[in-house]
Write a structure and sequence with these properties.
Strand order of the largest sheet: 1-2-6-7-8-9-5-4-3
Strand content: 15-25%
Bound molecules: zinc ion
Number of strands: 27
Radius of gyration: 36 Å
CATH class of the largest domain: Alpha Beta
Largest sheet: 9 strands, mixed
Shape: globular
Structural class: alpha+beta
CATH architecture of the largest domain: 2-Layer Sandwich
Number of domains: 6
Oligomer: single chain
Number of helices: 27
Length: about 900
């Protein structure tokens, strides 16, 4: 495996040893910058005045711009983007709207982590076209590895806006110009004197690419990093890309902050939200301790510090307060900022349709949400309402990121659902904590993950959680796994021609056998659909001469479609005629097309956040997994079915189109990647009504060909993902018939009228008896049998005991009344038998004569008789012999 850190340092060293090859030396010369090496860290840097150390706060004296901004100019968050956009457009860059933070087009990332994420891998690799060759973009990006730093350092964010200056050029790549543009933005727009600028030589890697870079530091703060991204990371190192890529990423928050020179960046980036928090919490964010603390805050970066407590001590000593007091004073302010930031960090992903959950990116969102709630609880900030806070953010961000506000209802629903889950977990968590002594860190992480035990709760129980607990809880992104399967012995063959894309109705074709390996046959062309996109493979036959062989499985590897034929006599070069099982294929096409309808219907009913999380379509039934923050009730399922049926009746044409990725994204947006982004630039799009998706499955040609659609049930498969089961076509008709038969059969068994609404009745029966639909009749039969049996037992026992039994007849007129009455009757009958059995002991006791007794007792409950006989034998020192109805003796 490649170690990316090693590659970075390799590229950095290479660039530093040959700066003229990698860096824009001409402009640096022109601006009178000269190269030096840091006395502290040994890094190469550029400056226009003599310096001993580089611009890192650790090498110099922290943040020197606080209360001493290097510029006269003051820019609000919104103005900062506006000014950059205007300046760069004038210089020929095209401004582009942000991409969703939910990175649907990537299979290695849940969320965008930088502006370049939008263009990896296909645009960077030259497979897809960029929206413009030279562009600027504000791209909100999420990083979870600093969660614990947010608030305390004054500059860390879970979500920051990564402003990009991004260029893709095979020719005319002009690094000197790109560098000059950024340099002059800094000196002319931000009006920062060049003597304040320190430029570092470095390297950056991310999303599978790599390059040397120049970082701009001012007053200890890194404003941006211009990466000359010439390489892609390979298995054994790196190789040059076909085109040159410039990836400049600038912190929108930081350029705003540097012009203010305020204590923290949070106040000038999110002024309205901070003001709201101050008002609701009464925390004084300008206390003397906080003010004297802040210039040192950048030293508390947990990424770069080994012993955080020692750093606290050092800072306390330097500003002359006791460490404990420092932390107590600084804590509420830092936490106020953290809550403010986290609300903003949740707003974008929730607006873009990400759902908090228990796995992957959804899990990270949940950790951020819970950290905010934990901090609010720690300080008893009952007045703070996260939903209100999110509203305030959306309002002030609307000018830079239009469209956030209209997503607020959806965001609020999700926050509501998260809140309920957060609250309900707390009680269990408290109990769990009571039982613990000195848990280690892994146990604490486990406690948080599985039992919702928060750091604040741990502290109340005298347990000290680690400082970076939240960061430990968030999972880091990993590169996509290499999915190439090994062990297949078919040599590299040309791609199989897919006839099913040309004509989805076609089931008969002729072809040539191009490879035979054991039972696997490759043909030059085929109508057989291989398992893929959640749709099961076709079956059918291959005929050669007068011999016919069954195809039992079909799969695709590297563009070659392999037919599994367990018994065959086929050879390379044979001409064959083939037939696909038409009924099976038709049903699979109906189910596949049905999945598009159910997905669109679910979005209409539940909200715009609904995405496809998975699907499976077999002949018998189908299911679609969707992202949603709650489980679904019966009414919602019926509504989804109703909308899906409406789409069916409206008879929408199923349109199949091919586009380049770029054009497809432009026309239909990134939502087309519901099932992930397919490789290659040309993609197959399937449009049904409003819904457009990249899809490689087979479909019927218009929605009315589904004939029938039924949503049959749902279940939560993981937190944030709900499975909707449905059937279409004949499978749906069978389902509806089955329901009718069940309802009629049940009515017959219970001597009731057949109900009007079969489905409702059957559904109520499944609830009443806690069984699946197809077990209702068995269950009713069993209950009736048991009822007779119990009545019989009651009668015999009553006779023996000389008691008067109660009869429990099935009452009611309708099916449901009678079903309920049967259920109750059986319960009462059981109770009656139990009561009678408990009287057996007394009854036998009364028969005791001459210290011995022999009794025939009309029960099959031999366990009870053993108990009774032992007890009586002991009490009376007597010989007790009890014989049960089935002859067993106690
Ligand atoms: Zn240094
Ligand atoms: Zn499809």
């Amino acid at each position: 495996m490649t170690n990316v850190d090693e590659l970075k340092s390799q590229v950095r060293q290479e660039a530093s040893s040959e700066p003229e090859r990698f860096f824009p030396i001409d402009v640096l010369d022109d601006k009178e910058f000269s190269r030096d090496t840091c006395d502290e860290c040994g890094r190469g840097f550029w400056s226009s005045k003599a310096r001993d150390v580089c611009g890192e706060p650790e090498c110099g004296s922290g943040y020197t711009f606080i209360e001493d901004s290097p510029t006269e100019k003051t820019l609000s968050y919104q103005e900062a983007w506006e000014e950059f956009r205007a300046f760069m457009s004038e210089r020929g860059y095209t401004p582009v709207d942000r991409y969703p933070v939910l990175a649907r087009w990537r299979d290695d990332l849940d969320f965008t982590i930088a502006s370049i994420s939008n263009f990896q891998p296909h645009v960077v690799e030259g497979v897809s076209e960029p929206p413009a060759e030279e562009l600027v973009i504000p791209q909100p990006s999420l990083r979870f590895n600093d969660v614990d730093n947010v608030g305390i350092t004054g500059r860390h964010y879970v979500l920051h806006d990564h402003i990009g200056q991004t260029c893709f050029r095979e020719e005319d790549y002009d690094q000197e110009r790109y560098f000059r543009d950024m340099f002059e933005f800094t000196t002319r727009v931000l009006e920062i004197p060049k003597s304040e600028i320190v430029i570092h030589e470095d390297a950056w890697a991310g999303g599978g690419n790599l390059g040397a870079s120049m970082e701009f530091f001012v007053g200890g703060l890194e404003l941006f990093n211009q990466v000359y991204m010439f390489y892609s990371v390979t298995e054994n190192g790196y190789e040059e890309l076909d085109q040159k890529v410039l990836d400049m990423g600038m912190g929108h928050e930081r350029i705003t902050w540097i012009t203010h020179g305020t204590q923290t960046s949070y106040r000038c980036v999110m002024p309205d939200a901070v003001e709201y928090m101050e008002e609701k919490t009464g925390v004084d964010v300008e206390s003397d301790t906080w003010q004297s603390f802040l210039p040192h805050s950048s030293r508390l970066n947990r990424d770069e510090v080994e012993d955080i407590e020692q750093v606290w001590q050092e800072i306390a000593d330097e500003i002359g307060v006791e460490k404990g007091e420092l932390k107590r004073e600084v804590g509420p302010v830092a936490d106020l900022y953290a809550v403010t930031e986290h609300a903003r960090a949740l707003l974008f992903p929730l607006a873009d349709g990400a759902v908090p959950g228990s796995a992957g990116g959804g899990h990270n969102l949940r950790v951020v949400y819970r950290r905010a709630r934990d901090l609010m609880r720690r300080h008893s900030w009952e007045q703070v309402d996260l939903e209100e806070l999110v509203d305030i953010h959306a309002e002030s961000l609307e000018l830079v990121f239009p469209g956030l506000k209209e997503k607020l209802p959806q965001v609020r629903d999700m926050l509501d659902a998260e809140s309920q889950k957060y609250e309900s977990g707390r009680e269990e968590a408290e109990t769990k904590l009571e039982s613990l002594k000195n848990p280690d860190v892994d146990t604490l992480v486990e406690l948080y993950e599985s039992h919702g035990v928060t750091p604040e709760m741990m502290e109340r129980h005298g347990i000290h959680p680690p400082d970076d607990l939240y960061t430990r809880l968030t999972s880091t992104e990993t590169d996509a796994e290499d999915s190439d399967e090994q062990g297949l012995n078919i040599e590299k063959l040309p791609d199989t021609k897919r006839l099913y894309y040309e004509d989805q109705e076609r089931t008969e074709f002729s072809a040539d056998v191009v490879a035979v390996r054991g039972e696997q046959i490759a043909l030059d062309r085929t109508c057989f659909y291989p398992t893929g996109g959640g749709q099961e493979h076709d079956t059918g036959t291959i005929q050669c001469g007068d011999q016919e062989f069954d195809v039992v499985d079909v799969e695709e590897r590297d563009g070659v479609i392999l037919h599994s034929v367990p018994e065959h006599d086929l050879n390379h070069g044979d001409g064959v005629t083939c037939e696909v099982d038409r009924d099976r294929r038709r049903q699979l096409m109906q189910h596949h097309t049905g999945a598009h309808l159910v997905g669109a219907a679910a979005r209409e009913v539940l909200g715009d956040h609904v995405d496809q999380a998975g699907a499976h379509k077999s002949r018998k039934d189908a299911r679609l997994d969707i992202t949603h923050y709650d489980s679904l009730n019966r009414n919602q399922l019926m509504e989804i079915e109703e909308v899906a049926r409406r789409l069916l009746i409206e008879d929408h044409e199923v349109e199949v189109m091919r586009f380049s990725k770029r054009e497809a994204e432009d026309r239909f947006g990134l939502r087309i990647y519901q099932g992930g982004a397919p490789p290659g630039d040309s993609i197959r799009l399937v449009q049904i009504g409003e819904d457009v998706q990249a899809c490689g499955g087979t479909h019927v040609s218009s929605t009315s060909e589904l004939d029938e659609i039924a949503v049959t049930g749902s279940q939560k498969v993981q937190d944030g993902v709900v499975r909707v089961r449905f059937r279409a076509g004949e499978a749906a008709e069978q389902y509806v018939d089955g329901i009718r038969e069940t309802a009629a059969g049940a009515a017959d068994l219970l001597d009731a009228e057949e109900p009007d609404n079969h489905r409702k009745a059957v559904h109520r029966l499944t609830e009443m008896y806690s069984v699946e639909e197809d077990h209702i009749l068995d269950t009713l039969e069993r209950f009736l049998e048991e009822r007779d049996n119990l009545a019989n037992q009651t009668r015999i026992l009553a006779e023996y005991l000389g008691a008067l039994p109660e009869a429990y007849p099935v009452k009611g007129d309708t099916l449901l009344e009678r079903a309920e009455s049967l259920f109750e009757a059986r319960k009462q009958q059981e109770k009656q038998v139990e009561e009678m059995e408990s009287r057996i002991e007394t009854h036998v006791r009364n028969q005791m004569e001459d210290r011995q007794v022999r009794e025939n007792i009309p029960t099959e409950n031999i366990g009870l008789l053993i108990q009774v006989s032992r007890k009586l034998a002991r009490d009376f020192s007597a010989a007790v012999r009890l014989q049960a109805r089935n002859g067993a003796v106690a």
